[in-house]
């Protein structure tokens, strides 16, 4: 089941690149992933469209000023500190043992299995697992007068939760007491507990434009990214006893929609050597939404972020702050991050990156997975204009990784 949830999430991203839920968080390239999710003031031109299109027209170091290509950038995050999917697998295995004991008329084994199932059901109730996945690519021609980038990206978030009914636990406790004798087999007729999977995906194909204005030796840049957006939701609820992740058709639980939207950004570069950059971006300027088959809405709201970066020859320090709160998707809390990252560049050949970000968004009472503080790190290798990026993320509840292949000429 764990592999099924991951495969579903990644599959939705690839396919698209061809209460109220928010859309998945914006796509992050591998460099941003390693630097705490920062990028509004610190992105390279190749990844600017993912964070702030105005950075396309910022004057960068010579190694970043030419034609750039990202093909591809991928990332995956997985949070399951309560081992939800393993719990569901264990429950289904125990149900098989229970039914085998019923068929062999072994009351002692039935009672022992019912005791174990009652405990397993109690532990699973409201436990949650989550998978995030992203895929992106970009082609960029940076220029201070008129910069252009073509990009595509997709992000998907999936959550799964167990919803255990009190009547099931009461029935299992009754069977465990021996008062029921040898009961019938367990199936969806005498168990009502369920597991629900909710998946939402957003993919974008767009083109970014940016230009710079001289401000007495400093530079003010503005950028815009009109884009074609595809939305997908998937909501699937199944009885825990009869759930089979190989025997359902995703199309029966899927909704889709297509629309146009845009991102806006500004950046200001100043200092004796242009070492300071401040940035501001608004993603998804036009609010939109998509309802699941059950009528629940996945909202795509404007997301505003401000950032600052300080860059010298061998290092970059940067910080981002979300000005708007992203409503929770599925079974999780709302998120609003403050992020800090750094990069040390060794002779334009190897880059070492660290980052941290903290969620100060409000709790929405979902009792789902909380995102608090996350630590990130990464390594970049850039010989002869080829960029290989590897990144990782860890928190008290989540693990993640990202990889990217890029070129600069």
TrEMBL record:
A Pfam short name: TraF_2
Keywords: Signal
Signal peptide as annotated in the record: 1-22
Top-level taxonomic group: Bacteria
InterPro entries for the chain: Put_conjugal_transfer
Keyword ATP-binding on entry: no
Name the record gives this protein: Conjugal transfer protein TraF
Taxonomic lineage: Bacteria, Pseudomonadati, Pseudomonadota, Gammaproteobacteria, Alteromonadales
